[in-house]
Amino acid sequence: VPLTDEKLDLVRNFNLLVEANFKTQHEVRFYAGKLNKSPKTLANVFALLKIPSPSTLIQKRILLEAKRLLNYTDKSAKEITYQLGFISPAHFSRFFKRHSGDNISTYRNHVVQS
After folding, report:
1. pTM assigned to the model
2. Distance from C-alpha of 101 to C-alpha of 86, rounded to nearest angstrom
3. pLDDT, tens digit (0-9, with 9 covering 90-100), for 48-85
């Protein structure tokens, strides 16, 4: 399958949308809708291009920002929870643990010591 400009533009535009909206929009269907595609179409194009799935990219961007806020600010986990659009600290805590392998306090303590 040829790499078309259309497919590459789709990925580029998806990434721009994620960058602009990841703090409030965590669902692939939001981004798919903005791009006038179905979530399945997005997933298929990403798979075809052998890049991580749309949901994986959204999660990675949220995690990157969470780590940045934990590393470089004095914000509490609760403040970060709401800044990143999670409905509760418990939800954010589970997300962080699942995607980073650490719980928030362990991560923060490890960063402070290093």
Report:
1. 0.92
2. 18
3. 999 999 999 999 999 999 999 999 999 999 999 999 99
- A 10 A CB-CB count for 93 gives 17
Q: What is the pLDDT of residues 90-113, one digit of tens each?
A: 999 999 999 999 999 999 988 767
Residue with structure tokens 């600010």? 73
Euclidean distance between CA atoms 84 and 82, whole angstroms: 5
| Interatomic CA distance for residues 81 and 10, integer angstroms | 29
Contact, 10 vs 45, CB < 8 A?
yes
Tokens representing 64 are 């990157």
Which residues have CB under 8 Å from 59's CB, separation 6+? 26, 95, 99
> Within 13 Å and on the Cβ side, how many CA atoms surround 54?
30
Q: Which residue has the tokens 């994986």?
A: 56
